[in-house]
Amino acid sequence: MAGELLSVRDLRVELASRNGTVHPVEGVSFDLDPGQTLGIVGESGCGKSMTLRAILGLLPRGGAITGGQVVFRGQDLLTLGRGQLRDVRGRSIGIIFQEPMSSLNPVMTVGDQIAEGPVAHLGLPRSAARERAVDLMRQVGIPDPGRRYRSYPHELSGGMRQRVMIAIALSCEPQLILCDEPTTALDVTIQDQILKLLLQLQESTGIGLILVTHDLAVVAQVCQQVAVMYAAQLVETGPVASVFAEPCHPYTLGLLRAVPDFDKVKAVLESIPGIPPSLIAPPDGCRFRQRCSFAEQDCAAGAFPLLPLAPDRASACVHWQSCRDAVRADPVIGQAS
Ligand SMILES: Nc1ncnc2c1ncn2[C@@H]1O[C@H](COP(=O)(O)OP(=O)(O)OP(=O)(O)O)[C@@H](O)[C@H]1O
Ligand SMILES: [Mg+2]
């Protein structure tokens, strides 16, 4: 069944800001099965991080979930109390953020930080948790883990710190790991190593993975499924190979055309002319229409939810066929396969 591990339904988030109420997530729905990797892509500010944060109840101050469901292994996380949610977060769902330095405790050894979860959530005695931490450090490729156990975060390189974050995320054998731009702060070769590591771990442990990124090449490399987000809404979902070969939303097409060669050029998402609409007072109709070369009059009013095109594909574009026909006439260069 689709969404056996995680099923997000019509998720809505509001954030109070000085200029008014921001709506960074509006009606987002997606499913994830065990062992699957889903990439969430979209321009800066479209709501990717808020979606991940909402799943775990980690919204910033002034943020609130105003609707929807986040069903994780049959249980709606939005109905849980703080304590229960903290337990799910520590134990069943790991999270990896972009900048490990801000998530690690600067005055605690990295080994103890990895051992903390197993003590708190799995009830392991200290000594066993320590052994487990050393094992995890080895598993994520930290050399000389016995010695590194006693290092403080500032004594490690960015790549090693991110490996520590991954070890922490894995420490209680979660079923799901959420990664928010886990490699953006790292240089390219380290990025590649970390992605390979995540992929390897995912293959060996069968955990589900959600990877938020700006980088379509990363999605092509790591993910089976992709969800394209634009101005707080999902506009296209489906298997990566199929969506990248034949996008059925003009925004996805725009993103792909901005990356002429996946192997050589990193995604420059901002190269689509125009800017996304305000998330405080978004316009009626399709939110991409002002930047869209396929837009027609019927795009100006109404709601544009994701609609199924095939059993495993969905698009929010009512003119998706025109988009697909344009792709067929002029295929996107540098396909995902
Ligand atoms: N603490 C906050 N208070 C008010 N608005 C916020 C806050 N944090 C983010 N926002 C707004 O919410 C929207 C979504 O932000 P979010 O961080 O989810 O974007 P994103 O897709 O992760 O972007 P990026 O790719 O830059 O990380 C943005 O328009 C942003 O301006
Ligand atoms: Mg973000």
The CATH topology of the domain at 6-92 and 174-237 corresponds to Rossmann fold
What's the total count of β strands?
A: 12
Measure the end-to-end span.
26 Å
Rg estimate, integer Å: 20 Å
Description:
It is globular and about 65 Å long. The protein contains 12 helices and 12 strands. It has an 8-stranded mixed β-sheet, with helices on both faces. The protein has a 4-stranded antiparallel β-sheet with strand order 2-1-4-5, covered by helices on one side. With 337 residues, it is of the alpha/beta class. The two termini are 26 Å apart. It has a domain at 6-92 and 174-237: Rossmann fold. Helix 4 packs across helix 5 (126-139) and helix 5 packs across helix 7. The longest helix has 18 residues, at 188-205. The structure holds adenosine-5'-triphosphate (ATP) and magnesium ion (MG). Adenosine-5'-triphosphate binds next to strand 1, strand 2 and helix 1.
Quick overview of this protein structure:
The chain has 337 residues and is an alpha/beta fold.
Topology record:
Blueprint: E1 6-17, E2 20-32, E3 37-41, H1 48-55, E4 63-72, E5 75-76, H2 82-91, E6 93-96, H3 100-103, H4 110-122, H5 126-139, H6 145-148, H7 158-170, E7 176-180, H8 188-205, E8 208-213, H9 216-222, E9 225-230, E10 233-239, H10 240-245, H11 250-257, E11 307-310, E12 313-315, H12 320-329
Parallel strand pairs: 3-8, 3-9, 6-7, 7-8
Antiparallel strand pairs: 1-2, 1-4, 4-5, 9-10, 10-12, 11-12
Bound molecules: adenosine-5'-triphosphate and magnesium ion.
